[in-house]
């Protein structure tokens, strides 16, 4: 429960941090897009106003060149000065009329003159504006784009407007026509539509279909740099999660090892207790005077003590074998070229008695033509003995054991040994772990099968030292088969002697 709660807590924490980072990035992207679009619209509006000013100045120059207008404003440089002078003159006349009441008709005359002057000024400015609008509608579409939106001018306006909106990043831009053809673009502009870009219509009020497109090559790094303070916390949380998972795995592994060691100690106690108690009982019987008078009984007790001593020594050696070869790595082995078929045949003969005692048999099919392998004879004998002993030990109740041991050639450089039985079989999960130290296959309610869980680990270790491989196949409840492959020997002068 603690593991589950901690895992869920870490997972939720990591999820919220990722969501927060994602939302922050989206918010920054939204702010950036809003600032860029505001700058684009301001640039477009500025270009429109500059175009209006261009036509206004052009019409003023045309009017100034006309004769009628020259007489009208020969004493004034622009219409605003004309208006101010007219107002000042009229004001002076009105002021004189107020001082000298006898000239009332002059006041009326001045007022009418001022009214007509203002009317002419209004008509002039109204006509001028109408002329500008007509010129824009008539001439603007035919005016070259380079004159209407010069690239240098556009770049300057864009830079100023972006800086005013807080966007000070390098940018590239382009202008396209209505059908998407690039009229001009700056160096480094990416024409791919997948690139992040921002666009606005140029001269929308004049009926133009040009588009101003802006790209920011460093936009993503700029946005992520604004939220980079979150990334270390995210990384630290991920590291803590990995450490937590690793710690949990170690805890479960240690728990499993503890259970395996406890099982090992229990089995070892049982295996040692039986021969020790037998030897102790035999020693007590030897102390009996009546037993000392019977030579047959003494001989029997001596045989029992000898057999149990061998059994006890064999169990001790099995316990020490794995630790010895874990440290030595096979350096104490005595390698020589031996015939594998001969060793297998001898081991099978010693195990036949046990199989026939239970009404079973061991078939031998040694078909390998070349069986010369370089290995340690004693330890290879133990390997075959352990495999046959396991096959006879893990048999189904009320079923006669039927074993088959075979060899065959594999290519020109390997020999294969197969040991097949009709025992209880192995589950898939057991097949993956049977070669681990202290691991023992569960036999259900059967308590007659004892051991340390070292036999197959020892077999695996030895076969690996001999340069071979061992695998296991099984169908649970029906059969098991162990397959050993060993490299054939390359004879040396010492072996030939």
Structure description:
The protein is α+β, with helices and mostly antiparallel strands. Helix content is 61%, strand content 14%. It is built from 15 helices and eleven strands. It has helices spanning 2-65, 67-72, 79-99, 104-139, 145-148, 151-164, 219-225, 230-286, 289-292, 295-328, 340-357, 377-393, 428-431, 455-465, 493-496, and strands at residues 172-176, 182-185, 197-202, 210-215, 335-339, 361-366, 372-376, 402-410, 414-421, 469-475, 479-487. The strands form three sheets. The chain has a five-stranded mixed beta sheet, covered by helices on one side. Helix 1 crosses helix 4 (104-139), helix 10 (295-328) crosses helix 14 (455-465) and helix 12 packs antiparallel against helix 14 (455-465). The longest helix has 64 residues, at 2-65. Residues 67-98, 444-449 and 492-497 have low confidence and may be disordered.
Order of helices and strands: HHHHHHEEEEHHHHEHEEHEEHHEEH
Q: Helical amount among residues, as a percent range? A: 55-70%
**Strand content range:** 5-15%
The largest sheet has its strands arranged as 6-8-9-11-10
Distance between the termini: 68 Å
Poorly predicted runs are 67-98, 444-449, 492-497
Number of strands: 11
Structural class by sheet pairing and helices:
alpha+beta
- Average pLDDT: 77
Largest sheet: 5 strands, mixed
The radius of gyration is: 52 Å
The oligomerization state is single chain
Question: Treating each run of at least 4 consecutive H or I residues as one helix, how many helices?
Answer: 15
Shape: rod-shaped
